[in-house]
Specification:
alpha/beta; Rossmann fold; GMP Synthetase, Chain A, domain 3; four-stranded antiparallel sheet; 31% helix; globular
Length: 505
């Protein structure tokens, strides 16, 4: 397989030459399929429409639509004319969307009638109309690996989100790293159920599929009820996921078993499935073990950020992987630094830093944040972790999520993992909440297994038997679900607000 490193239109052209009639894209929603050649034609038509609207190299085109084949075509149509794709989180409110568009200097909004927000001006025709028959004569714009391909906005724990500028070189490098590490090739078929306004879906199961000569199935959203049916129908070999999805599949399986105890296995593993790729948020060890034991599917955990395109580490996709570890660096350099930017010894906690071809080139219109992020030539992730002697990395927590109780640093991940080991717990999350004496105190939010019953004090005692007292939750809240963002990351601020609401009833 020839490896094109210059830009994404060139990569697509190379794959079309190699796999012209092979299926590249499948729309799970309606069964439509595109071969590599047909996909190129659709991209050309979309590029023609953009040119007709005055879009040129370097212009930002905002993308606001649900997961669909048109969304993927729209990405590549932008790149075909040298434009910068600006995916917008469809869960944002109108003012937030308007801010992202203004900050990114967007020239055009590509949307559909369902997600078109009011107050932003008339939306352009929905993608199915925008991508109708064109001239097919679009010239591929000359692009370098350093040209920006995407501006994707981070969620931002404080203040306004920042626009990460990812280049064509970044996207291709990360696709190469993932495909090579996971052993993906033309016989693989990847499922995209993560939202396409985040890099997980764009990088792991879309551009990586293109790089590997694989096929990708795009689903509108994740459904625990229909998931295994989709895997089986389309003979999916791997899919991108987050811990929340694995938990939901386990809960659905438990429901099915309770409804039909005599069933041999309500959700058998399709023979095509090789492994699940999991990231975006750490996977509790007990959850990973339960999933693998229940479904017989290997879970390969990885780690990364939007700033690293997507994946920076993965466990090996075989029995040598280490549950609890986010894996090994798959192509970029990674180290653990102390607060003085000195590398610490293996096994010691510090900040994860990285550099390599998949690391973004900076934050859009934010030189100060870019300079701070790249101190001493390394990208500082803000994540706390350690590396063992064999090169496996472990995530403790986000710097910003660390709880400081009376001068003691507490990493919620450690407590989360312990809570998942309790037989009555289906899901758990720990946050720091204000405390007049200690500054911060530990609060736990728990979703119980169906039919399970346990008291707050029993949970606290369970922790006290296994953790230092200062780490143990002082309040336990039982909830129906734990709020997460579209990539499965815990919405810590929502939990903190929930604590406040309950504490002062």
């Amino acid at each position: 397989m020839t490896q094109i490193q210059e830009n994404l239109p060139a990569l697509l052209a190379e794959r079309v030459a190699e796999y012209s009639d092979k299926t590249f894209l499948i729309s799970e929603q309606d069964g439509r399929e595109w071969s590599y050649r047909e996909f190129q034609t659709a991209v050309d038509e979309g590029a023609d429409r953009l040119i007709e609207r005055g879009i040129a190299k370097g212009d930002v085109v905002s993308l606001l639509m649900p997961n669909s084949a048109e969304y993927i075509i729209s990405y590549f149509a932008c790149w075909e004319v040298g434009a910068i794709a600006g995916p917008i989180n469809s869960l944002l409110k109108e003012d937030e969307i308007a801010w992202v568009r203004e900050n990114s200097e967007s020239k055009l909004l590509m949307t559909d009638t369902a997600t078109s927000p009011g107050g932003l001006g008339a939306p352009i025709p929905e993608p199915a109309v925008l991508l109708d028959r064109g001239t097919g004569n679009t010239d591929v714009t000359e692009l370098t690996p350093d040209d920006t391909a995407i501006i994707i906005y981070t969620s931002g724990t404080t203040g306004k989100p920042k626009g990460c500028m990812l280049t064509h070189g970044n996207l291709i490098a990360n696709a190469r790293q993932i495909a090579d590490w996971m052993g993906l090739g033309p016989d693989d078929r990847l499922l995209t159920v993560m939202p396409l306004f985040h890099m997980n879906a764009v990088s792991v199961t879309t551009i990586t599929a293109l790089y590997a000569g694989s096929s990708t199935v795009i689903a509108p959203k994740f459904s625990a009820s229909r998931f295994w049916e989709i895997i089986d129908r389309y003979q999916v070999t791997s899919f991108g996921s987050v811990a929340t999805m694995l938990s939901m599949l386990l809960q659905k399986n438990s429901e099915l078993r309770s409804q039909n105890p005599a069933a041999d296995h309500p959700n058998p593993r399709p023979s095509s499935l090789r492994f699940a790729m999991c990231g975006s948020a750490p996977v509790p060890v007990e959850l990973l073990k339960r999933f693998e034991e229940t479904f017989g599917v290997l879970v390969v955990e990885g780690y990364g950020l939007s700033e690293s395109t997507c994946r920076s580490t993965f466990n090996p996709p075989n029995e040598t992987r280490r549950p609890g570890s986010c894996g090994m660096a798959i192509g970029n350099e990674m180290k653990i630094f102390d607060e003085a930017d000195r590398e610490v010894r293996h096994g010691e906690l510090g900040e994860i830093v990285m550099r390599g071809p998949n690391i973004f080139k900076g934050y859009f219109k934010n030189e100060e944040a870019t300079k701070k992020a790249f101190e001493n030539g390394w990208f500082h992730t803000g994540d706390i972790g350690y590396r063992d002697d064999e090169g496996f990395f472990y995530i403790a927590d986000r710097k910003s999520d660390m709880i400081v109780r009376g001068g003691e640093n507490i990493y919620p991940r450690e407590i989360d993992d312990l809570l998942y080991a309790h037989p009555a717990v289906a899901a758990a999350a720990v946050v720091g909440v204000p405390d007049g004496l200690y500054g911060e105190e530990v609060a736990a939010f728990i979703v119980l297994q169906g039919g399970a019953s346990v008291s707050e004090q029993e949970v606290i005692e369970f922790c006290r038997e296994r953790l230092a007292d200062f780490k143990c939750p002082k309040r336990v809240y039982f909830v129906d679900d734990i709020p997460t963002g579209p990539t499965g990351k815990l919405l810590k601020r929502e939990l903190a607000r929930l604590h406040t609401a309950r504490a002062f009833r």
